[in-house]
Structures are given as C-alpha cells and as structure tokens.
Design a protein that fits this description.
single chain; alpha/beta; 6-stranded mixed beta sheet
Amino acid sequence: MNVSKEVAKVLLDIKAVFLSPSKPFTWASGIISPIYCDNRLILGEVKSRNLVEEALANLVKEKYSDVEVLMGTSTAGIPHAAYVSSILGLPMGYVRSSEKNHGRHNQIEGASVNGKKVVVIEDLISTGGSVIEVVNALRENGAIVLGIASLFTYNLEKGKLRLQEVNVINHSLSNFEALAEVALESNYITSKEYEKVLAFRKNPNDSSWQNL
C-alpha cells in the first residue's frame, strides 16, 4: 500500500474522516458533502499520529530539501508543525489568522522567517483560502515560501486554481481519490456510494450527486 492510501486508511480507521453519502454533511460554506474531515483526532491516537508525522516529515524532506523553517497554520497545523520540526531538527512557528490586538501585535509567532526558506504545514486543503492568507502573511514578512505540506487535500479544482494564482505548490500525504478507493476496497462504502462520492468531487457545488 502506498503512503497516500496508508494515510487514508489511518484517517478512516480512527474516524478522522467520515464518508456518508446517504446522510451528507453541510460544510461551513453551505456545500452539501458526503465527506467530513477532522484531522485533530490524529493527535489523540499515538500509533496513528507517529505514522502520520513521520510520513509528513519524509514528505517535507523529499519535496522541500532546502527548507529552513516550518510554519504551522493556526490552529490545526500548529501541532503537526511542532512534531515534524522535532523530527527534522528545524525551527518552527505559526501564523495567526490576524495580528494580535495587544503587545507587539505579532501575526507570526516563533522562529524568524525574514530571508528564510519556509514550508507551511497545514492539516487540510479544501478551497485554499485560509492557507493562502498564511502564505501571503509570510511573504509580507520576508519569507521565501517554498510551498505547503499538508495531511489531506480534497483536490478541489477551486483550491488548485487559487494556489496556482498565488504561485504556491502543495504536496499532501493523502487525498480524496485515495480515500475513496480505500473506503471502497474495505467495504466502508458500496460501489454506488463510490460513484456518488466521485460525482461530488467532480463538482461540489452541484448537489445532483445525491440523486445518482
């Protein structure tokens, strides 16, 4: 089993990801979805967490070999940045969603990023909006952003296009397609539900996938 499917299996096993085509979820954006992801649950499962963090560290080493600093997204990316920075022996920090309204008014906490080659650690990529804000904040503070290393991506076209527009790449440990394949192979979903899941993935704004 490749890393992408191995991580997908972990996410399904610990219920960090739910697939429920018959009783879909409503995202904050209003999109009706057969999938819901809560990667924070990884933190409470030691064996699964160790596997994921080692895989994420290997991903960073492979894709961004000259990285100097890791920066987690607030808040979900922070613990993963901390684990991976410990494994790789790198300085780390995190980026707030906005500047503090007191003290030094920092938005970037921890390691200095000015003139440094930085990799952003994120747990989940959907439409890319929040992680792009992090990338922009880092660049405004002098960072050379090499790219993003994330645990999971929905591989939505909107997200991929938005990342391209700001000239930043993302490498994820696992993705929507790998998860759907593992779910089908393990009988977590039926072949009919698999068709629905892929139809959703093709166009999340079109709810007709529910009628397949």
